């Protein structure tokens, strides 16, 4: 197995790392090609029996920058795929989008060696592009074509939720028995409450938290502006926010917080992992999912939802269909998309400790019942097996 990832390093990409470990435990030989970053900067690493090849990547900050980013990444992936092949034959290439260009690497190996192809459908590239740039131009149409070609080449596809499965079948014209839903549930052994970070809880304030990537499409600016509303418009000094993570918007968000004079009411921790991250998340009284409702976010299964629920953290979100479906009564939904509306619901939850306890209990019950990576790993391995047992011979 060779897994291709373009936008996140491994093992930072939790889903891909869980998949790689599941493959390795099932007896497969696994290699991963991914970018450097997040503290994982070695060009090659053998970690827990998995061979990881990493390359440099300069992330695009505008629509015009994407061709250069993707072409450079494709070159590195092609080059490193032959490094992996020199060490071990490759039976299956798994491509994790975005972008929907990595099928070209799989096509190259299929034509030369008969290698099979598994598409791991992480993101909706056309919708993601439109959510970031607000236009359905030539790039948008090209992304739609690339998505169709990716599905066309795939021997099987794995979807992060049922909505993605429907897209693979309807938009990608895949047969239903070739599409497998594999959700990105955290490992409960690593995602659990612990004593909270002492520096966060000493003043007795209600802690509003965010964890995740800070990109333009993630809506973190709305949370920063919500805190401005809480502190200055509502005069609440008993609430503070802690933002865990980083991303392309990190420095801009820090500058905005400074401009708004939020001071200690809004803290940025940067990228955290392991026990340190769990200590910070365990300090959260309220989680926030500030992602704006749009054609992309409404269909996504968000890691934040699963992490908050496994930790028993009640959270506030906007009206996102898939997140609502997965969270149920564990989330307080903000129907109007604005910083003021988000702030009002944060305050309402901060002032209602009984409701927070009920939401936390609901979250833990749903997570304990449904959020089992072991079940998802079985589905994932079934997708791999299906590639070799299918009676249909694909071109």
Residue share in β-strands: 15-25%
Order of helices and strands: EHEEEHEHEHHEHEHEHEHEHEHEHEHHH
- The average pLDDT is 94
Q: What is the annotated CATH architecture of the largest domain?
A: 3-Layer(aba) Sandwich
Remind me, CATH topology of the largest domain? Rossmann fold
Biggest beta sheet summary? 8 strands, mixed
Helical content stands at 40-55%
Question: How many strand elements?
Answer: 14
How many structural domains?
A: 2
Outline type: globular
Largest sheet strand order = 3-4-2-1-5-6-7-8
Indicate the CATH class of the largest domain. Alpha Beta
Report on this structure:
There is one protein chain. With 395 residues, the chain is of the alpha/beta class. It folds into two domains: 2-185 and 373-389, Glycogen Phosphorylase B (Rossmann fold, 3-Layer(aba) Sandwich); 198-370, Rossmann fold. Helix content is 45%, strand content 17%. The protein has 15 helices and 14 strands. α6 (162-170) links the parallel β7 (156-159) and β8. The longest helix is centred in the N-terminal third of the chain and has 22 residues, at 66-87. It is globular, with a radius of gyration of 21 Å.
